[in-house]
Amino acid sequence: MIKQITELSEQEYLLCGTRACSGCGLAIAYRHALKALGKNTIIVIPACCATVLQGMYPVSSAQVTIVNTAFETTASAAAGIYAGLQATKNKHNFNVVGWAGDGGTVDIGLQALSAAAERNDNIIYVCYDNEAYMNTGTQRSGATPENALTTTTPLFGKQHKKKDIIKIMEAHNIPYIATCSPAYPVDLYNKFLKAKSIQGFKFIYIFIPCPPGWGFNPAQTIKIGKLAAECGIFELFEIINGEKIYNGITERIKNNKQPKKNPVEYYSLQMRFKNLSKNK
Predict the structure, then answer these.
(1) Whole-prediction pTM value?
(2) More confident residue, 90 or 135
(3) Fewest 10 Å CB contacts: which of 19, 153, 177, 278?
């Protein structure tokens, strides 16, 4: 585990020149996660922004093994790869990681995710949540927050609550659940380090600000990510064998060591919430 960003490894497994959008929170999170996971990693990715980020075959910006799979099969494909590695003794001790967006996790891929979690397959599953189907044009997903404007909820915003994927995963009694954000890279790095040392199914949720989908200046990605935590809209924590432990800014807010910010600034910086009044 590390305590400050200067302790991060200088080894890069995500090269410059990705196809990600300017200010992409996913690219930042992916870069630091790969530093923690290391070269002996196999990433399973469905159709999503992460597929675009990698680049087009036969080139890739990621210097680890990438397996592209169908939208609904991230967890089942990762579980199958791990089973194959075990059958051949997994001599290089590969980490097998499913890496999917919110649409491919809370909606389309939920059945395979639930099955792998119920079996306690020894993989890491990552849900990077940019709160809509960004790769195909910002359509609402089950993870889109209430009142957010999307291309399929353009007039009044989404009229339903955000699906709570953390509670769903808690119900599976898996050994490790963690939340993190590209705005807090040390916390993110340490949680991936911890996850790869734990036997069984691990679920990591990453809160990903998206400049084009949320409608904010790409230079404000980190600011938006920090505001979400400072306002309590997003919380940093781990659930280890059923015990919830708050981390970082969230722990300080929960213990009254730091005041929670008013969420008005968070919402006002994003065009997807332009229909909200300050009192709503």
Answers:
(1) 0.96
(2) 135
(3) 278
